[in-house]
Amino acid sequence: MSSDAGGGARDVAIALSTASSRRSWCHAQKKESIIGVTEQTGSPQFGRSGASPLFSSEMSVNLSAPALPLRLKRVDCEDSQNTHAPKCKRRKLSQPPSPGLAPCLRPQTHSTEHTGPEKLCVSSIGSYILLEATEGTQTYRAVHRITEQEFTCKVFSMRKYHELIAPYTRLLPHDNICKISEIIMGEQNVYIFFERNYGDMHSYVRTCKRLQEDEAVRLFKQMASAVNHCHENGVVLRDLKLRKFVFTDAQRTKLVLQNLEDSCLLNGDDDSLTDKHGCPAYVGPEILNSRHSYSGKAADIWSLGVVLYTMLVGRYPFQDVEPAALFSKIRRGAFTIPETLSPRAKSLVCCMLRKSPLERLEAQDILLHPWLHCSNNTFVSQHPNSRHSNDQVVPDFEKGKEGDCY
Questions:
Q1: In degrees rounded to 5, what are phi and psi of residue 191?
Q2: Rounded distance, CA 298 to CA 223, Å?
Q3: Hey, is 31 helix, strand or coil?
């Protein structure tokens, strides 16, 4: 009986051992299956030891796993598509056009466009579109948006424009003096619009070499009338020259005096000036010789005489490449007049280019001179080849020296 009891106990122990072994084998199979699935799905690999990743100290520094870099790359790509693209769109919509003109043309009221392959800079102010600028100046060609009429726009500093446009405001309207069409106030600058022109007299004389007397009479009469109007209203021009007279029509028959910004306003009848300002070829001898004051109006008459001489002869009465030699000729006041000019033309030139300021004609007397009242039949063709002659040419002396003072 005890033998049966011992055998039963052994059977129970064997059964329990067999069950325990079976449970251990099932647990091992299940664990191996889990690890195999994990490796196949691309999770980080921790070796064949079967250590749980939850307790692995290297889980955050394992750089050999292929899934993590792939996921990071995919996330980065999605971020770049979701974040950068909208930002680019916002920048394109909100970015203001970059100004294309000089700093003085960059108030906040401007808008600039770039058109064409050469990116032509265009700016606008008020009802006007500002186009290219004159080289070396703050003067621009302008077009009215509605009428498409062309104008000339000058840009002045807000602090100085009152002084610069004072000659225009003092003078009454005159047919041969340019008028201000409109003034637009910017934040830092003032934009003054004038009627457009069709070239200046300096360029015209250079092209023609010299003018026939009948044409010179018509044009010079307008010049003298403009100067007389200025003198009668207390405005001394100081820097009078051919370039300051411009044509207002394409046929080049009507002239106006422009660029009055550097003129001097007189207080009363005294026209005495002390500053030495002007273009070398047009400056009077008293300005070079005087250490004190000189007559501003008489100096204008001298310059006007140089203008007339150049129109008729095709060169300056006093001309030299060396400034010292040029000023020496002007101080002496000696010049030659071609015999081809009519006697009345010679008379008027000599009456304006007198060395003594007191002996020169005044502007109102010039308008009464007989040469300006001659009929077309009075003039003979003194210059049969004047339009094609190359022996006398007006040098481009005004442009480079116009800012010099003496």
A1: -110, 115
A2: 16
A3: helix
On whether the pTM is more than 0.70, the answer is no
Is 270 catalytic? The answer is no
**Using CA atoms, how far apart are residues 146 and 133, in angstroms rounded to an integer?**
21
What residues contact residue 284 under an 8 Å CB cut-off, 6+ apart?
294, 298, 299, 302, 303, 330, 357
271 shares a domain with 211: yes
Task: Name the one residue in this structure whose structure tokens are 């200025």.
Answer: 230
3-state SS assignment for residue 366: helix
Residues 172 and 320 both lie in one domain: no
In 80-137, which ranges are continuous DSSP H helix? 85-94
Mean pLDDT of 229-251: 97
The percent of residues in the chain predicted with pLDDT above 70, rounded, is 61
C-beta neighbour count of 72 within 10 angstroms: 10
Q: Sign of dihedral through CA atoms 182, 186, 190, 193? A: negative
Domain boundary among 195, 223, 258: 195
Last residue of a domain, one of 171, 195, 219: 195
Do 174 and 257 share a domain, yes or no? no
Q: Please tell me what DSSP assigns to residue 176.
A: T
> Any idea what the CATH number is for the domain that residue 168 is in?
3.30.200.20
The single residue of 175, 200, 214, 239 carrying the catalytic annotation is: 239
291 and 265 part of one domain: yes
Instruction: Report the distance separating Cα 174 and Cα 169, nearest Å.
Output: 12
Range of the domain at 210: 201-401
pLDDT surpasses 90 at 232: yes
Q: In what order do the strands lie in the sheet with 120-125?
A: 112-115, 120-125, 128-133, 139-144, 150-157, 189-195, 180-185
> For 298, phi and psi rounded to 5 degrees?
-65, -35
What single letter denotes the amino acid at residue 180? I
**Span 15-41, pLDDT tens digits:** 555 555 666 555 555 544 444 444 444
Q: How far apart are CA 160 and CA 166, in angstroms?
A: 10
Domain-located, residue 264:
yes
143 within domain boundaries: yes
Shared-domain flag, residues 135 and 189: yes
Give me the sign of the Cα torsion angle 206, 207, 212, 216. negative
Q: Could you give the residue ranges of the DSSP H alpha helices within 128-212?
A: 161-164, 166-170, 201-208
